[in-house]
Amino acid sequence: MQLTLTGTLDTDNDTLTWAARDYGDTIHHRPNAVLRPGDPTDISTVVRYAHLHGVPVVPRGAGHSTGGQSQAPGGIVIDMTCLSTIHEIGFDRVVVDAGARWSDIVRATLPHGLTPPVLTDYLELTVGGTLSVGGLGGASHHHGAQTDHVLALDVVTPTGELISCNPHENRELFVAVRAGRGRNGIITRATLRLIPAPETVVWHKLRYDAIDELVADQRLLVTTDAFNYVEGQLKVRGGRFVAELEAVSFAGSRSGQLTDLHPQDGETDTVTYWDFVNRLTTAEPLLREAGLWDSPHPWCNVIVPDKAAEEVLRGLGGKLGSTLYSDFGLVLAYPLRADRITTPLLRLPHDRLVFLIAALRYAPTDAPDIVAAMEQANDALIAVARQAGGTLYLDPL
Ligand SMILES: Cc1cc2nc3c(=O)[nH]c(=O)nc-3n(C[C@H](O)[C@H](O)[C@H](O)COP(=O)(O)OP(=O)(O)OC[C@H]3O[C@@H](n4cnc5c(N)ncnc54)[C@H](O)[C@@H]3O)c2cc1C
Predict the structure, then answer these.
(1) 282-337, pLDDT tens digit by residue?
(2) Stated pTM of the model
(3) Nearest atom within ligand 1 for CA of residue 185
(4) Considering the domain boundaries, does residue 213 fall inside one?
(5) What separation in Å is there between the alpha carbon of 64 and the centre of ligand 1?
(6) 172: helix, strand or coil
(7) Closest residue (by CA) to atom 37 of ligand 1?
(8) Same-domain check for residues 162 and 242
(9) Among 276, 280, 282, residue whose Cα is nearest residue 110
(10) Last residue of some domain: 196, 211, 237?
């Protein structure tokens, strides 16, 4: 194909192999080409060409999907990380290219005393990648999803037009693209809301013997809004089942009172805000050393109504030892207040509170039986969640 581009359209074997792999490493679809755009006009040019010729085009951020969402079988993958400039930081907003990683944004905004209101647990994801799914984290019970804090977007539409949209201008496109999983348009630039960042945070990790007590305390914390961040996880460590609640208060904001909670034990640390939000960088080298970073990750994310939380988690908790395989796997589980999430395409169960449940499984390389067992466990989780009126989060379209 003859296209005038400032970037490149690559078809070499290494590039196509790279684009056929994601963090999940269980689905591998090779594209026919990878666009490394020099500017948003390149994206327009390629999307227009692809639209005319019926070629699938899929944007790829950091490639941290686990179900082939950023792959384009026989089509064109657009490597969005080529456009990652942070353009402007104002007193309440930042303007960034969609390929920027959240870690770069926080590094740039913190010197101004500012932060995005919601951050994912892992910051090496791109703005376009998380805005195309929602972007949930421990602050979501209060602030909703990352998609709820978008002030404006520049988007290349599926026919190749480059259009600006916001809640008032081209609203339909603004609605279709947030949590649109890259299929309703490609975000090239985003204006994101910022709020004051604390310098330090007080970080409690509370341990429970029983899932019901963990869930009861999580419910209490998010309904009283006493903490800035609430998460929780189930895991097996050294052969022992652990249910843990994380509650974090930012210096000078919420009350952060632990009264009326019923943990068995726990610990409290005070750390800088950056060390807290960037906490998963310490896990990555450990996983690499254990050979579990580049291996298959059959992950599964569901959102279930409040009334089903204990039952679904008890079902998962009883089988954790066999279905997580290693000491690195875990099940994240924490409540969100549904009224705080206003993104129309982020589908939630009908309930006042909903629980995000994420089975994060790490399989070793060359162990298809373990991967198959994990996928079976995921199918069972999805069936139970659906039965309870739950929805899937991050599912491929
Ligand atoms: C270690 C780890 C931790 C995670 N933690 C969290 C968490 O705490 N909270 C949470 O909500 N999620 C979490 N996730 C999931 C993650 O948010 C999603 O998988 C996200 O989509 C990945 O972003 P990415 O930049 O890697 O995008 P990719 O995987 O490259 O792409 C994801 C989807 O976004 C589309 N896309 C990419 N760029 C654009 C764009 N510019 N415009 C439109 N669509 C685009 C792709 O086509 C694809 O459909 C985590 C994933 C990992 C691997």
Answers:
(1) 999 999 999 999 999 999 999 999 999 999 999 887 778 777 888 889 999 999 99
(2) 0.97
(3) 43
(4) yes
(5) 6
(6) helix
(7) 129
(8) no
(9) 276
(10) 196
Of 44-58, 69-83, 243-257, which range is least confident?
Answer: 243-257
Distance from the CA of 72 to the center of ligand 1, in angstroms?
15
Task: Give how far Cα 235 sits from Cα of 43, 278, 316, 360, Å.
Answer: 43, 21, 10, 10
Please tell me the residue having the least CA distance from ligand 1 atom 1: 122
Quote the number of domains for the chain.
3
Residue 135 Cα to ligand 1 middle (Å): 8
Lowest-pLDDT range of 17-31, 184-198, 227-241? 227-241
Give me the amino acid identity at 21.
Answer: R
Residues with beta carbon inside 6 Å of ligand 1? Answer: 22-23, 58-65, 69-70, 80, 98, 120-122, 125-126, 128-130, 132-137, 181-182, 186-187, 394
Structural domain span for residue 75: 8-81
Residue nearest to atom 35 of ligand 1 (CA): 182
Which of 207-221, 312-326, 333-347, 378-392 bottoms out in mean pLDDT, i.e. has the lowest? 312-326
CATH code: domain of residue 177 = 3.30.465.10
The alpha carbon dihedral of 344, 228, 284, 187 has a sign of positive
Does 130 fall in a domain? yes
Residue 98's nearest CA partner among 118, 111, 80, 123 is: 80
Question: Which of 21, 66, 120 is the best mutation target for the ligand 1 pocket, counting ligand atoms within 8 Å of the beta carbon and taking the most?
Answer: 120
Amino acid at 76: I
Res 397: pLDDT? 62
pLDDT value of position 1: 62
What is the pLDDT, as a whole number, of residue 179?
A: 97
List pLDDT tens digits, range 216-225. 999 999 999 8
Clarify whether residues 367 and 246 are in a common domain.
yes
The H-assigned helical ranges of the chain are 13-19, 40-53, 102-109, 127-131, 140-143, 171-177, 211-224, 273-277, 283-289, 309-317, 320-323, 368-387
% of the chain residues with pLDDT over 70: 99
Closest residue by CA, ligand 1 atom 36: 129
CA of 240 relative to ligand 1 center, distance in Å: 32
Q: Which atom of ligand 1 is nearest to the CA of 182?
A: 44
